[in-house]
Amino acid sequence: MNVLQLTTNAEATYITNQVEALRELGVESDVLEVPDRSESDGRSPVDYLRFCPLVRNHLSSEYDLVHANFGLTIPAALTQTGVPVVTSLVGSDLMGRFGVVTKSFARFCDEVIVVSPEMAELLSTDATVIPYGIDFDLFHPMERATARNAVGWETDGYCVLFPYSPDRAVKDYPKAERVVDAASSELGEDIELKVITGNDYSEMPYYMNAADVLLLTSRREGSPVTVKEALACNTPVVGTPVGDVPERVSDVDASGTGDSVDELATLVRRALTGDGCENGREEVWNLRLERMGERILSVYERAVERRSTG
Fold it and tell me: What is the average pLDDT across 118-124?
């Protein structure tokens, strides 16, 4: 099968991982990116309109399917009618300011993929839930002292990881600060909040293993990859009950979700003083990249079969 992948960022890890996982199953992909941003604060509607003729001109008879990765790439995918269109919705495209646009166009796609059941409930069309896969070769448990030495952290002391940009309002960094302050007061010891953003992806397993717990205070999410990557390293996760986070951490040692600062602070304190996490990797084993690729391929095959049978 040959697939044209449409994306807003051809270098994004979720795209490169998806393309590689599918390649292992015999699916060849070409990746086409939306043109460069015309505005400093992100792409404008004009950029997405400019993408439509680019997609039409790029399409040829060799493609069996178009995969629109991100809701605002759907219109470009639908400018042709020759091959099926599958879309993957990531969260912000459905739950953010362009959610109405995404919902309107998603119903014209042959198949829709979402990363969490919560997102599927927001649509008026059927959707298949396929969370992002995790590279289990890259993300694996290691000795905490070894990981801390690798990232230059002190080997002693409590460290809570916040692997997001503080500038992204949806991640609610001020709440993370309040949670750590409250947990420190409960514990009677200093806790350092480690903010990691913009680092090389290959370094992230070391940060995951160097931390005592990963903290997520987001106001909304689809299926945050960092949560699953941390669990693959047997690092506890404490977070707000957004997206599929409650499902991911419900049975994981020293992990949990809470709404308020006090609830989250207590969970962080328990994670820091408990017996650690031994089953995180086991709980996300079904989310490895190979399994993700198989599930996406089954959606592709369903879309092609449905189109061919009319």
Answer: 90
Distance CA 103, CA 142 (A): 42
Taking CA 93 as the corner, what is the angle to CA 91 and CA 95, rounded to the nearest 5 degrees?
Answer: 60
Q: What is the pTM of this model?
A: 0.89
Alpha-helical (H) ranges within the chain are: 13-23, 45-58, 74-77, 92-95, 99-106, 117-120, 144-151, 173-187, 204-210, 225-232, 245-249, 261-273, 280-283, 289-308
- pLDDT tens digits, 32-44: 999 876 555 578 8
Give the helix/strand (H/E) hosting 128: strand 128-129
Spatial separation of the C-alpha atoms in residues 163 and 216, rounded to whole Å: 8
Cβ density class 83-104: b for 16+ within 10 Å, e for less: bbbbbbbbbbbbbeebeebbbe
Contact by Cβ (8 Å): 183, 265: yes
C-alpha 304/C-alpha 83 separation (Å) is 8
Residues written for the chain? 310
Spatial contact of 55 and 32, defined as CB atoms under 8 Å apart: yes
**Do residues 228 and 237 lie in contact, with contact meaning Cβ atoms separated by under 8 Å?**
no
Neighbouring C-beta atoms of residue 196, cutoff 10 Å? 18
The span from the CA of 55 to the CA of 132, in Å, is: 25
Q: What is the pLDDT of residues 126-148, one digit of tens each?
A: 999 999 999 999 999 999 999 99
Looking from the CA of 8 toward its CB, the CA atoms found within 13 Å total 19
How much of the chain is helix, strand and coil, in % rounded to 5? 45, 15, 40
Amino acid at 263: E
Task: Say which range, 57-66, 179-188, 229-238, 247-256, has the weakest mean pLDDT.
Answer: 57-66
Q: What are phi and psi of 207, to 5 degrees?
A: -65, -40
Q: What is the DSSP code (8-state) at residue 40? A: T
- Please report where in the chains the tokens 């994306």 appear, as a residue: 7
Label the pairing between strands 85-89 and 111-114: parallel
Residue 129: beta bridge partners? Answer: 114
